[in-house]
Amino acid sequence: MSGYLSGVLAVLCINLIFAYGIFVPMAAGQINLGGAGFQAIGAYTTAWLSSVAGLQLWLTVPAAMLAAALIGCLISFLVLRTRGVYMVLATFAFGEVVAGFLLRSDFFGGAIGMVVPVHVALPLLVCCAAAVLLLTFYLMATRLGLAMRSINDDEAAAIVMGINVRAVQVTAFTVGGAFAGLSGALYAHSFNFVEAQYFNSFLSIYVLLFVLIGGAQTAWGPLVGTVFFTLLPEVLRISGSWRFVGFGVAIVLMMMLRPQGVITRAMVQRLSPRRWAPQCAGAGTWHGG
Amino acid sequence: MAASPALALHGVNKHFGGLSVIENVSFEVPAGARMALIGPNGAGKTTLFNLISGVFRVDAGSILLDGAAVENMPTRLRVRAGVSRSFQNIRLMPHLSVVENVMLGQHTLTKGLGPLLSPLAWQRNSRWRRLAEESLRSAGIDIDPDADVATLSYGVRKKIEVVRALMSRPRLLMLDEPAAGLNPRETAELAIFLKSMAWEGLTLLVVEHDMSFVHDLCERTIVLNFGRLIYQGPTGGVQNDEQVRAAYLGSRRVATKGAHTAA
Amino acid sequence: MTAGSVPAKFRTALQTPAVAAAIVVALLFAATALGGMTREVVSGVMLGSIYMMVAVAFTLTIGVLNFLNFTIPSLFMLTGMVAWGLTANGYVKFAGSWAWLAALAAGVAAAVAASLLVERFTFRYLRMKHGDAIEHAIPLVSSLGFLLIFEHLVLIALGSESERFAIPFKADVHVASVVVGVPQIISCALAVGVVAALSFVLKNTKTGRALRTIAESPDTAALLGVEVDKIVPLVFILTGLLAGIAGALFTVNYGNVSPFMGDNVGTKAIAAMVVGGIGSVWGAIAGGLVVGLAETLSIYLFGGDSVQMVVWGLLLALIVVRPQGLFATVAIGKGKM
Description:
Chain B is an alpha/beta fold. Chain B has helices spanning 45-53, 75-78, 98-104, 113-117, 127-138, 154-166, 184-196, 211-217, 242-247; strands at 7-16, 19-29, 34-38, 60-65, 68-69, 83-85, 172-176, 203-207, 220-225, 228-234. Chain B has two domains: 1-82 and 170-263, Rossmann fold; 94-168, no CATH class. The longest helix of chain B has 13 residues, at 154-166. By secondary structure, chain C is mainly alpha-helical. Chain C has a single domain, classed as ABC transporter involved in vitamin B12 uptake, BtuC (Orthogonal Bundle).
């Protein structure tokens, strides 16, 4: 496999894990516009543990996930007091605070960044991405996933049905943070360098858009969105700023024509193989349809 | 010795800003009874439902379910306390399928992490799913359980909401205008279905405007007007009550289906 | 209802004028009285007047259309960059010594045009009753897309460097031992004038009432006789004007433009909006001044590195603890947002 191709696939895997980190809270109705902050937490935790504490991969990466998950959990208690535009602003603010802090802190290398000694090869990245994918599909198939989707649809009715909305949302946010942190850790070990300027608000915006364009209704959406936006510019040999202009145009068009994203629940439903036949209605019962 | 009533309200008050919407309302619904809650538009019927199901908190007074005070209980625990409801404007989850909506009603029956984390969607033969599908069938809803709820007709969606409310095995089922939008045949069938659903101890509290449906289904009725209780007694006595007549703008007969009187 | 679900109520009257005025005056007094900070106060007020205009643009769009419009910082940037681009490529030589003004005017026009482009291609910005959490965000996402388009087109067309934009005269005035630039004074006056005029329009004209009707009851506005299709583009035009004029004033005062000039100002403007209470026009005005003064004073006192982080940190705290802002009273609403 050529170096170029393996580089693209590495980016794809990291983006996928990051995208699912945004998808999980979004499935429960929470828009996280501070994803870069969580990725940064993962990246810098692993960078510090690796370069300063000299720990190995199998320690640094889980530690990074844990750190991001913990902070995600704590932050969620604050953020989940907000709704709508306030939540968008609060998560955005969180991302900026993290980036600003890292930029200033000499402990973490400040504006110069940190070198990460240990390298992670493509096979591990693919395994991690696959694991995150499967885990997310599994999560969405459980009653917890059902609860999340119902909160997204109608939070007030979900509470009346007995769902502990707060607990579900905190869980979703924490899992999302863990995934985003994992993507950061793998990013650090893949590129062997981290700098605070990378984890800016545009990064948060991009990953959010991967999920929204792909479709946030099912776990297939983020996969499609990420693959599309990571691979298409490569295939079309577009680079630099034109890539982002194209990105922007795609988003505007999608929001006009198909805001629910490329993959919808209805589409997945239609494509899945199942057969159903109506049964005869008995006497004294309602007639369906 | 009489069993405690399924639902009892004592001196319940609720106001929004300066507006008093429920004023000193007290009534009891005996266990196993089927009671109607009627009143002109804006009388506070849905507000009362919201207070009992925990969407709003009372400003004063108490609400007892099976003798236990619930007025300070958090919303999400009320259904565990035994009350389940449907909504005036149907509130099915638009992006969930029919069977998923119904299984949502089972949520409160699941205890612990195990059922929460088992892959329900992949277990098409699980007892939860079979239970949901069976309930749909026995309610005569003969459609693909995986269908999108958004594609279905109003009447079917209303029925699905009732089935969903029943999934939590409630002791008190509150239905907010279950017959609205149904044709006379569907309405009659609904009444039959609800009567047949009266398992041991299921109590019904139904908000309705269709008095023939009310007469058919409910033996007792309470009448609300401007947030106050003006009648509590047998359904048959409603038409003759002076206060009720005055409340409905002096019409001689209380409205039957298709002829609503405005408050 | 959680603390954070207070909806953005669109307000045109100052909720607690006493509190707002008191804070601003207190800051001014403290700054001058503590000595030697008059220059910071003056530049703080000037900066604040720029922030307030952008903040009003944000708050107007959220208040009337329930739409957090992320393109606003890029409209700000567009004005400056277009003005510079026209000047650098010699398109405004015909205007002689007023070339700079023509360029800026063209820049503002570009901002308005861009804003109308956003309006044309952004759907469902009126309050949606039955959408799920994600569907409410459709216009926000659209605006993110436009943000990308505008920023990167500018990067492609005009490069990524910070450029000088000079105005041919420099008139200074001495006010109480401080040298104040005439452009600065004009900026303040212009900004305050524009915003005051807007406030007047909102309160006293038919159009203003129409805007407030759409804000209060978007579903029934059409039934109440409001020509929604004509009024809504007006919001976008106002947005473009406010962001554009703010961008022009910024350019004149700092003599500098860059493709990233919108980002910083966007942050502060959002902070100003939240401080004043989302949806409150006068709150945005007061908030803008507060943020401007706070910025210059804290840079003077603590150094410039941490400003971004401190501002966002305070914003986060404010959103979580008192989302209705410092000046607004608590609104009892349905928290539909």
